[in-house]
Amino acid sequence: MYHELAAGDIICCRLRLKYEEEHLLLDLVERGVQLIPSATSQLASRSKTFQARILGPLMIPHTVVIYDIHGMLETVSLYGRHSIKKVILKHDRKNAGLGIHLFQNIEDVYTQAANNVLPYPFVLQPFISDSVDVRVIFLDDYVEAYERRNPDNFRNNLHCGGEAIDYPLTQHQMKLCREAMQRGSFPYGHLDLMVTKEGETYLAEINLRGGIRGAVIKPDNYRKRVQAIEKKLLQKKTQHLP
């Protein structure tokens, strides 16, 4: 029904788009089709580079999206100017810690990028040692947070062998989560926060859905809460229709 959709129509589900089909989201929005969840949140959930572009101010300072070798060279100078040594590279479309790589210096990244070993685009960030990895689940009035800890791997994802520990969010961290969700038009979400040893908190990633291994909430309750949020948004959009 793609070509039959028109202004005022509503799609109330996440679209199962194939790789490089995301441009269809723009076409739907331009035609006045309304999406629940929003097109922005759906695209941000699929692309770490898009996340970094729109939510960069909430992330670690000097988070950069690299699109080509020219941007890579500029970032070499940027990181050198700020004496940034170890760096983290995030591949655009990989999750569960599988696309995260640690480099000892920016020149190693440049060498691999210049030799076409690394596929563009990707995200570069300064490596922050001894940071705390916090997963936050935001489902309307339900908020749950837990630290993910792995003493054997800097990747703290539970998929990589970490353990979950209850984590009390501060008011500042709650505000940061809400700001990220508002900017990305997320009606609900999974947010990963990075808390430095100095006590600073930054957004690491955000997604509409994510694994709930380690969470208190159970799959059935989780699913019901997501459906309730989407139903409420749908009712809000249709209440003034004739």
Describe this structure in words.
By secondary structure, the chain is α+β, with helices and mostly antiparallel strands. Among the domains are: 61-126, ATP-grasp fold, A domain (Dna Ligase, domain 1, 2-Layer Sandwich); 132-229, 2-Layer Sandwich (D-amino Acid Aminotransferase, Chain A, domain 1), CATH 3.30.470. 33% of the residues lie in helices and 24% in strands. It has seven helices and eleven strands. It has helices at 23-30, 39-46, 48-55, 69-81, 106-114, 171-183, 219-238, and strands spanning 10-12, 34-36, 64-66, 87-91, 100-103, 122-126, 132-139, 142-149, 163-166, 189-195, 201-207. Strands 9-8-7-10-11 form a five-stranded antiparallel β-sheet. Strand 4 (87-91) and strand 5 form a beta hairpin. Helix 2 packs across helix 3 and helix 4 runs antiparallel to helix 5 (106-114). The radius of gyration is 19 Å and the shape is globular.
Structure keywords:
242 residues; D-amino Acid Aminotransferase, Chain A, domain 1; five-stranded antiparallel sheet; 7 helices; 11 strands
What CATH architecture label of the domain at 132-229 applies? Answer: 2-Layer Sandwich
* Share of β-strand residues: 15-25%
Overall morphology: globular
Oligomer: single chain
